[in-house]
């Protein structure tokens, strides 16, 4: 599909893409770039690429597809690092969980002829690093592309084929809309999980009660989400501020309404709210995304 692919950032997502490139033969040559010496060693040990280097400009030399798979807050630095090595007619993409901020970070380094297609695979786990990646991560999962208005359609088609070969289904979206949708489906739930687990941990310390020992399934589910990488999630909230604060405001209002219903013994309101939300779960299961 490509002569030479370079992946910058060989953590969970970058290494999972690399495994797909290798297993499905999506490039003649695969180069990995990562600033971390430990990660580079792991890439060699796991045999995830043909070449691996900490020199990011060298990593992208001659590449016709470059994928930035670093935390959102590191996108500008990674782009600055690779810019001197990029060839003119390269397709550049990323995997960041936020799109508007990544576009702002990457755009200043683009030259005429380069095609930048922001992307976000909606697939992940609470683990990070090259050892945690696996090829099936993207199987049956959405990958959202938010191309620039000036992007060549042929480049979008090529990236679409690439992600489809990795097992993904493609959706094209406006970047601002992506940030709002993911704000509610991914960012807010992570914020809530971090809060609940934090509160429970403090409660255990304060009251010496056995919150963790007797954690029921509700709490256990939150602890899995709250075990996600702190760097990645710090960067998501710092870079999707407007959408997250907007959604948080609405969430707070809904929470206050539930609080009032509990205080006033309004069982009908509680029942109706809980009954309505079951339909969402059913729809997710029906669409095979559970
Ligand atoms: P990860 O496992 O932490 O991997 C990120 C890698 O990038 C690490 O090896 C890191 O090295 C390296 N790195 C950091 N700054 C760099 C720089 N300036 N230049 C080169 N390499 C650099 O993270 P991930 O989970 O794969 O996430 C990668 C991206 O995908 C993020 O933008 C995230 O928002 C997005 N994403 C994540 C998920 C998920 O569930 N995890 C899902 C979809 C999309 P160090 O560890 O030494 O810093």
* Main pleated-sheet profile: 6 strands, parallel
Mean pLDDT: 95
Percentage of residues in strands: 5-15%
Estimate the global geometry from the Cα principal axes.
Answer: globular
Strand pairing plus helix content: what structural class?
A: alpha/beta
What would CATH call the class of the largest domain? Answer: Alpha Beta
DSSP helix fraction: 40-55%
Return residue spans where pLDDT drops below 50 for at least 5 consecutive residues. none
CATH fold descriptor of the largest domain: Rossmann fold
CATH level-two architecture of the largest domain: 3-Layer(aba) Sandwich
* Side-by-side strand order of the widest sheet: 3-2-1-4-5-6
Order of helices and strands: EHEHEHEHEHEEEHEHHHHH
Termini separation comes to 31 Å
Number of strands: 9
Supply Rg.
Answer: 21 Å
What compounds are bound to the protein?
Answer: NADP nicotinamide-adenine-dinucleotide phosphate
In DSSP terms, counting alpha (H) and pi (I) runs of 4 or more, how many helices?
11
CATH superfamily of the largest domain: NAD(P)-binding Rossmann-like Domain
Query: What's the number of domains?
Result: 2
Characterize the structure shown.
By secondary structure, the protein is an alpha/beta fold. It has 2 domains: 2-173, NAD(P)-binding Rossmann-like Domain (Rossmann fold), CATH 3.40.50; 177-286, Orthogonal Bundle (6-phosphogluconate dehydrogenase C-terminal fold), CATH 1.10.3660. It is built from 11 helices and 9 strands. It has helices spanning 12-24, 37-45, 56-59, 75-82, 100-106, 153-165, 175-207, 217-225, 230-239, 241-263, 267-286, and strands spanning 2-8, 27-33, 51-53, 65-68, 91-94, 115-117, 119-121, 142-145, 169-172. It has a 6-stranded parallel beta sheet with strand order 3-2-1-4-5-6, with helices on both faces. It has a 3-stranded mixed beta sheet with strand order 7-8-9, with helices on one face. α4 links the parallel β4 and β5 (91-94). α4 runs parallel beside α5 and α7 (175-207) packs across α8 (217-225). The chain is globular. The two termini are 31 Å apart. The model has no long low-confidence stretch (mean pLDDT 95). It binds NADP nicotinamide-adenine-dinucleotide phosphate.
